Amino acid sequence: EAGVVQSPRYKIIEKKQPVAFWCNPISGHNTLYWYRQNLGQGPELLIRYENEEAVDDSQLPKDRFSAERLKGVDSTLKIQPAELGDSAVYLCASSKRQGTEAFFGQGTRLTVV
Amino acid sequence: DQQVKQNSPSLSVQEGRISILNCDYTNSMFDYFLWYKKYPAEGPTFLISISSIKDKNEDGRFTVFLNKSAKHLSLHIVPSQPGDSAVYFCAARSARQLTFGSGTQLTVLP
């Protein structure tokens, strides 16, 4: 069974530029999460999807961040414009509807210069 | 306001001995607790979990203990192996949302 796939693995951009991350969850997993992990800290939830519906986006900075999950499968997370403080690892995870554990992708390391 | 805390940023243990990683939480609504392991440049990997209605769960060399009255859980690894060297994250679930601690870097010395 293929795991959660994220791309790109690394991204370096200048501040004020836009950036997008892509995630393909495990087949059959209804729930998809985007997390942000800063250096030396644990992952922090940005948004959670149940199928194509965003059910928890309270931690998503909506002035510059947006996300979508078309057809309830793949998802993209966008930042526009990026700021220096957005440098972090962005993790995508998925789980079954009734599952307890979430399975993570390898993450996208974003560096804003 | 950290709801899940791992107060030890690092831990070093000799190969073959026991590793004990600790985690404290504040939210009584958490219904599941999980441990994840993370190697550099990889995403966290699920290791073991425990329901809030239990006090112990064992899987091979890994055992998780939950003390609800103290709002404390711990992960025991016996015997520790060099391949166990990684960052370990404690996570707690409420309303299908996982809240993570800041992690503990475990180093198992050969």
List the helices and strands and how they pair.
The complex is a heterodimer of chains A (113) and B (110).
Chain A: E1 5-7, E2 10-13, E3 19-24, E4 31-37, E5 44-50, E6 53-56, E7 65-68, E8 75-79, E9 88-95, E10 103-104, E11 108-112
Chain B: E1 4-5, E2 10-14, E3 19-25, E4 32-38, E5 45-51, E6 56-59, E7 62-67, E8 72-77, E9 86-94, E10 97-100, E11 104-109
Parallel strand pairs in B: 2-11
Antiparallel strand pairs in B: 1-3, 3-8, 4-5, 4-9, 6-7, 7-8, 9-10, 9-11
Q: What's the gist of this structure?
A:
The complex is a heterodimer of chains A (113) and B (110). With 113 residues, chain A is mainly β.
Q: Could you give the count of β-strands of chain A?
A: 11
Oligomer: heterodimer
Please report the distance between the alpha carbons of the first and last residues of chain B: 38 Å
In helices, the fraction of residues of chain A equals under 10%
Low-confidence stretches of chain B: none
Order of helices and strands of chain A: EEEEEEEEEEE
Mass-distribution shape of chain A: globular
Mean pLDDT of chain B: 95
Largest interface: A-B, 22 and 24 residues
Q: Helix proportion of residues of chain B, in percent?
A: under 10%
State the helix count of chain B. 0
Proportion in β-strands of chain B: over 45%
The outline of chain B comes out as: globular
| Computed Rg of chain B | 13 Å
Main sheet characteristics of chain A: 7 strands, mixed
What is the CA–CA distance across the termini of chain A? Answer: 37 Å
How much beta of chain A, percentage-wise?
Answer: over 45%
Would you mind describing this structure in some detail?
Chain A is mainly beta and 113 residues long. Chain A has no helices and eleven strands. Chain A has strands at residues 5-7, 10-13, 19-24, 31-37, 44-50, 53-56, 65-68, 75-79, 88-95, 103-104, 108-112. Chain A is globular and about 40 Å long. The model of chain A has no long low-confidence stretch (mean pLDDT 93). Chain B has 110 residues and is mainly beta. Chain B has no helices and eleven strands. Chain B has strands at 4-5, 10-14, 19-25, 32-38, 45-51, 56-59, 62-67, 72-77, 86-94, 97-100, 104-109. In chain B, strands 2, 4, 5, 9, 10 and 11 form a six-stranded mixed β-sheet that branches. Chain B has a five-stranded antiparallel β-sheet with strand order 1-3-8-7-6, with no helix packed on it. In chain B, strand 7 (62-67) and strand 8 (72-77) form a beta hairpin. The interface between A and B is medium-sized, with 22 and 24 residues.
